[in-house]
Design a protein that fits this description.
Belongs to the short-chain dehydrogenases/reductases (SDR) family. By secondary structure, the chain is α/β, with parallel strands linked by helices. It contains 9 helices and 7 strands. The chain has a 7-stranded parallel β-sheet with strand order 3-2-1-4-5-6-7, with helices on both faces. Bound molecules: nicotinamide-adenine-dinucleotide.
Length: about 250
């Protein structure tokens, strides 16, 4: 089979839950997974997710919040069982504005943990029992290089993305005996609304320095992150679990 055809079949026949699919990395992932033969189920709290699905024949969509266990149970009931999941929904807090710990509002700190940590926890709790019972399945969680590195002005976000790695590794160890894999992608700066519409707008000078802070001299496209997730979710990564895959142009290699 020529390479192109193999690529198109990489996720053939898999029903894949994609959270945060209304925008950025999640939207790019939904499109890419479909190209690779999957039936993506798009989940987002933003109703724009319905438009994304409308433009993507072979996909389905649900409006819901990952902090709401009932909404996740409904997604499973209506569109499950899933073969795989890309737990990607997340929030940066403060509308992207960098604020030192001393000045960071408690309520905003809690909101970031509620979405990025508790929301992921809810997704894992909803998905893992079925995957383990069936003895198959793959999960990819979206962390960040700030899950490895400190991020001044983004401490609440960085703490939440460190927690994503803890959840990923723990879930991987719990699920491995059943043949279920759990991994994480750790993007550097990615060209999505989170960064280009909010982060860059809220922090003078950030846009100018972002590309140069990556050894490859540019930021990532959302599709490049989606490619890494697609591989980790595919059977080609059959013996890869508990892994943190940086997609950061060398940033964390420094
Ligand atoms: N853009 C970057 O530079 C970058 C870098 C590293 C990691 N990330 C991570 O990548 C993931 C995707 O971010 P993005 O850049 O595509 O941002 P984005 O803001 O473009 O998209 C995030 C999507 O998640 C959805 N969402 C947020 N909270 C939700 C909730 N509680 N329930 C359901 N949906 C929710 C939003 O509605 C939005 O559609 C996030 O986890 C983010 O932290 C982004």
């Amino acid at each position: 089979m020529p390479n192109g055809a193999e690529d198109r079949a990489m996720l053939e026949g898999k029903t894949i839950l994609v959270t945060g699919a209304a925008s950025g990395i999640g939207r790019a992932a939904a499109r890419l997974f479909r190209e690779y033969g999957a039936a993506p189920v798009l989940f987002d709290r933003d109703e724009a997710v319905m438009d994304v699905a409308r433009d993507l024949p072979g996909s389905a969509a649900l409006v819901g919040d990952i902090t709401d266990c009932a909404a996740l149970a409904d997604a499973l009931e209506r569109h499950g069982p899933f073969d795989a999941a890309f737990n990607n929904a997340g929030t940066e807090g403060m509308g992207g504005r960098m604020v030192p710990i001393a000045d960071y509002p408690e309520e905003e700190f809690r909101k970031v943990q509620q979405v990025n940590v508790e929301g992921l926890w809810n997704c894992l709790k909803a998905l893992l029992p079925g995957f383990i019972a069936r003895g198959s399945g793959a999960i990819v969680n979206t962390s960040s290089v700030t899950g490895w590195l400190g991020a001044p002005g983004l401490a609440a976000y960085s703490a939440s993305k460190h927690a994503v790695i803890g959840l990923t590794r723990s879930a991987a160890l719990e699920a491995a005996p059943a043949g279920v894999r759990v991994n994480a992608v750790l993007p550097g700066a990615v060209e999505t609304p989170m960064l280009t519409e909010r982060g860059f707008a809220a922090n003078p000078g950030f846009a100018e320095g972002a590309a140069a802070s990556h050894p490859m001299g540019r930021i990532a496209t959302a599709r490049e992150v989606a490619e890494a997730a697609a591989w980790l979710l595919s059977d080609r990564a059959g013996f890869v679990t508990g892994h943190c895959l940086a997609v950061d142009g060398g940033l964390s290699a420094r």
